[in-house]
Design goal:
The structure holds two protein chains of two kinds.
Chain A lengths: L2 H14 L5 E7 L6 E6 L29 E5 L1 H12 L8 E6 L7 H7 L9 E3 L3 E4 L2 E4 L6 H4 L11 E3 L12 H7 L3 H13 L6 H5 L25 H11 L9 H5 L6 H16 L23
Parallel strand pairs in A: 1-3, 3-4, 4-8
Antiparallel strand pairs in A: 1-2, 5-6, 6-7
Chain B lengths: L7 E6 L3 H10 L8 E6 L7 H9 L4 E6 L10 H18 L7 E5 L5 H18 L6
Parallel strand pairs in B: 1-2, 1-3, 3-4
Classes of the chains: A alpha/beta, B alpha/beta.
Amino acid sequence: MDKQDELRKKARGLLESKKVEQIIGYAKGSNSTRTTPKFVSDKNKTEELVWNSFCTNNLTSYLKGIKNKTAIVVKGCDSRALVEMLKAKQVERENLCIIGVCCDGIVDSGKLFQKIKFDPNRDEVKEDIENLFIHKNKISKKDVLLDKCLFCEYKIPVIFDTLIGKETKERIKDEFLDVKEIEKMSAEGKKKFWKGQFEKCIGCFACRNVCPICYCEKCVLESRDPELVSSDENDRWLFHLVRAYHTTGRCVDCGECERVCPVRIPLRKLYRKLQKDVKEVFGYSAGVDPEEKNVLMDFKIDEEP
Amino acid sequence: MEKFEPRIVGFLCRWCSYAGADNAGVSRMEYPPNLRVIKVMCSSRINPTIILKAFNEGADGVLIAGCHPGDCHYVKGNYFTRRRIALVKKLLEYVGIEPKRLRIEWVSASEGNKFAALVKEMTNELRELGPIKNG
């Protein structure tokens, strides 16, 4: 039984037994390389749920403000975001049923289009564990994975009630190569690089809105009294650095910000810098242990950070 | 060309460092007038947003001074500051702002001479670094 069938069966079981009122999962998207978030509350509609290599979205963002019993489908990275939400008491554990899916990595459709020409509106994409099949071509998933999936230490969700798929022990250590690349630049080079990136920003707030750990009712970036970060173009630098700093010790590198950015600012490169520092200096990784204190809310008396 | 004079924003904690600065003044010690002092109740009161905003508005340097670790009026405020600022420094370096521009120091109420020397040293360092050319 493949993961999708297993998922559908579990979902149906949960709704039939009335353990949950709704399930947040993925459904078929507008074309063969897309999936769309789906809320299912009818037990006869669980067949609409899908699981494939294009289940990109981090669904935990939809849990903000949800009060009824909900089951949610999470990948490894999403589950870490969920841990951070639980830590911050944004969701109640009793209301949740976490359906963890062992993830083999998500495919970047952009990379796929570069590799092979096809019409996603007409051509079907089939897959097995390691390969994608389009027409009669076989493409190894490893070549078209999302950047964040290339170095994934959490293929199995860190928190779940039921697990779908086989547990693997495989962990690819994240060496933060992309961050180190920028660190090597000169001060002027760094300034120029980030200036070029932040200049593109149109201030749409998509990165903030999609972020599972951005749940403040009053966001400092939107505050107009006091106006700390204005909507002025001169404040784009400030906007991104403030947002970056706010993710310290909470960002789990789910990559949603970068995915939704309409002007393709490499936001992960910015947020991952803080993940790297927090890991190197304080030995802390976000979203691993629900009982652990956040790195900035904790201290040791005789440390010299 | 006119000599470059850096503008430094100083956030001083009300209990130790502000009193330390006062002590420097009362003892008639001289230090450069480049520092603009803002009194805060505790060094942990300083949200990194404010530090970043200072740099964005054109400050050439930011000085944060608080009680020595262990001496915080609010018992543990400065321990949090210590972690926070260490990370802000690294973030600033990552976007091309020299870490020397952000300084965190512990100055007690009796260390007027330390405070004067500190401002002198920082001003000289920033004079060498030159003005901040921000994105």
